[in-house]
Amino acid sequence: MVQIVLFLLLLNTSACCGFGFRGCSQNYPATNIMWCFNQNIANLSDVISMIPDNVTTINLSKNKIRVIPPGSFSQVLGLKNLDLSQNQLDSLKGGEFRGLVVLDLLNLTSNNISSIHSSVFEGLTRLRTLLLPFNRLATISPGIFNYLSAIHEVDLSLNMLKTFSCVESGGSSTLKRLHLFANYIQRVNVSCFPALEYIRLSNNSKLELQADVFASNPRLKFLLLQRVKVEALVGLSMDTKRNLSWVAFSLFLDKSPLTVCRVIEGMDQLNRIEVDLKGSRLPQHNSSLLNCSAPAVVIIMDANFGNVAHLSLGKGNTSGLYLINCGLKQISYTTFDGFQGLKTLQLNQNKIVVQQDAFKGLTDLTSLSFDRSKIRDIDPNWFVPLKKLTRLSLIKNEVLDLAPKVFSALTQLEQLYLQFNLLKYITKKPFSKLRKLTKLNLSLNIIDFIEEGSFQDLTSLRYLDLSGNHIKRLTPSILSGLVNLRTFVLYNNRLHFRSYESPFINLTSLQYLEMNYQGPGGRGIGDIGPHFFQGQRQLICVGIGHSILLNIHPDAFSPLVNLKQLYIAGVIMKTTNLSAVFSPLKRLKKLTLYRADLDTLPANLLPPDNALEVLKVQSNHLHTVDKMTLDALPRLRTLDITENPLTCTCENAWFKSWAIHNAHTQVPYLYNLQCDNDRRAAYLWQFNDKACSYEEVSLTLFITCSVMDVLFVCLCLAWHTQGPAIRYLLLILKAKLRGRRGAAGTKFQYDAFVSYSSKDEAWVMGQLVPSLERPAAGAQRLRLCLHHRDFRPGTAVLENIEAAIYSARHTICVVTRHFLRSEWCSVEFQLASLRLLCDGSDVLLLVFLEEIPQHCLSPYTRLRKIVRKKTYLLWPEKPEEQDAFWVRLRDALKDEEEEEEEGGRGGEAELARLIG
């Protein structure tokens, strides 16, 4: 009782603050952004009704929203960005976005929208971006753009449009970008969009363009027409061509009389060209694709060039050349002859053999890419002329090994990408002399060994990614030289450390360390000892966990005085002293303990005056939330406790109220938190905690105590006045529960139980027992139950009496004056009488050994005389009459069900009257 009172008093003390949203989470610290992504939301109104009015961005993508009720967003009138992509909307009937006068971006991608009412966008006077790709629009409603007075970009790609005419859909003086990619458009009219600068009409194979189709679009600069008949581009007016700066088209050289130069003829301001050659080969008579003035950026895709000795791409100052999936097999110094001014060269998706002098004349090259080109060996001679190269990419090749000092000629290199290769060892200092390298990516190889000093020259390196390898060991000698490293990614390796190691002691500038998933094929990360983070005073973010074995020493985090984010996941921390481990982290702002096998959180999780703002403890075994724990986190703004088996009991009543009503700490997805113990309240917010309040408990206790007092007094009075009868009734009920109730076909152990006074034992043993158990020849032998012979030793007397009566077909009462004066005989008689009341069995047979006056008979004896006169037998004094007595007694002991039923119906009412 004292504990309950103390708990109730705690409920009235000053509480922490909290709040939550239905199906959403506030993106702290950007509290104006709401994430409602992938929460199975179907009823939009329930979600929006709980969102604060100062929100400017809502992400409702990947839900199950079918309908947007009119005025759904009326309470978030300051909304600027709304994402409803990947839902199940099939139509927009009008009024859905009413009141969103400052909305800037509306994303309706990947729904099933087939119709949009013309007034849907009414009032969206500041909308700049409208995204409607991946829907089922076959037509555009008339005048739909008339309401969008500030629109800049519209995306209608991947719909079912056959025509597009701004005359019908409405014009706009502000629209600059229009995407109509992958429809079935045959005709287009964009004359009502005078500000149009960019239009994408690619993958509309039946599109026909009139020469003056863009005559009303003097600002048009970007025209994308891949997978469209190239004649549509060629036939455009000269005025249109003259303004274009970026054009993209498809051309199949093998079957078309046109050339690239013929297509771009008249495009005097062209700065970028993208040509999809659809698998074309170079003309045999001329290897030149561009024998005219070429733009600054040339992108050639999907060709079949083969071995090209000299690739002439026109005259001019081309600075960027992209040959993507062009079937190049070999390149040499003559391939790019004439491209002395080239700065960017991409040769992605080409199975090429690169000659040593392939880049001899490309001295101004700053970016070189060989992604997905099946390269196995990297020749150091390639890079000798590339003194200005700052970016080199060899992603997703088949590089097995790096030669010694392979990149040493690239003294200006800043970025090197070698992920998705087959590197197994890093030896012989391949990164020698790369003193300006700032970013190195070696992820997703099969590296299991790194030689000491391999990174010695990378003194400017800021980002190093070694994730997705098989690295088992890192030492200070291996990582020497990385004095300016800021970000170190070691995700998914096989690292294992001992308690005395300090692997990162030389990385004095390290700020971000990612070490999750250590152990597949290994022993796990092992021990994070007291010196593990020695020297890491600049470290602000650490991710560690998902390891087979992880032990954290209480002093492991002592050097991390500036740590702000700590992520620990997928490890067993049930026995870890969290208070000791986290005690140095006074500046920690975000702590994640995901799947850490935690049953509770200590009250002193972090040191006093901590700065924690976000605490995430998802997927643990927390049943309750300790108020003292949260009271010790005064700056907490987000508490994520999803996927825990919370109990809906009074222990969590304070937490429910705290999470719902206050406005300082958010509980993400509060209305999705389920109860673990109460099926009637599926969610925590539905738990009825009224009984847990002080007033309700007080009233309940008062009423309960009052009722119990009244019942106690009544029971005492009943016991005092009807004690024996109650005791006997309880015994009968106990017998019923044990299944001893007599029924048709029940087999009895005895034919009769004999109730008699010990002073009449001589007659019982001398006359009754011999005559019934050992009768003369020809008479039926009966089984009798006697006190001294058949009662079980060690069992209570009342239980023996009860068992004897219910295991015998009849009860014979040997009535004398001694019988009437015996208390035990009275008990036996009344218990046998109650059997009549409970199951209708009339089992009593009265045998009088002497004449007894009426006034001496007890009420029970008089009752039996009235109910069953034929069972009343008087022992005759004359010997000649005794044989007849035994015959009558034997007849009375026979199992006559009909007589018992008749006697039972009358006896039950009379017995009830007497006992009551």
TrEMBL record:
SMART domains: LRR_SD22 (SM00365), LRR_TYP (SM00369), TIR (SM00255). Residues 896-916 are annotated as: Disordered. Residues 1-18 form the signal peptide. The keyword Signal applies. The keyword Signal applies. One of its GO terms (molecular function) is signaling receptor activity. Pfam families: LRR_8, TIR. Residues 903-916 have a biased composition (Basic and acidic residues). Residues 748-893 form the TIR domain. It is found in: Membrane. Transmembrane segments: none annotated. InterPro entries: Leu-rich_rpt, Leu-rich_rpt_typical-subtyp, LRR_dom_sf, TIR_dom, Toll_tir_struct_dom_sf. One of its GO terms (cellular component) is plasma membrane. It is a single-pass type I membrane protein. It comes from the Eukaryota. GO terms for biological process: inflammatory response; innate immune response; signal transduction. Keywords: Glycoprotein, Immunity, Inflammatory response, Innate immunity, Leucine-rich repeat, Membrane, Receptor, Repeat, Signal, Transmembrane, Transmembrane helix. PANTHER family: LOW QUALITY PROTEIN: TOLL-LIKE RECEPTOR 13-RELATED (PTHR24365:SF522), TOLL-LIKE RECEPTOR (PTHR24365). Belongs to the Toll-like receptor family. This is Toll-like receptor 13. It comes from Seriola dumerili. The lineage of its organism: Eukaryota, Metazoa, Chordata, Craniata, Vertebrata.
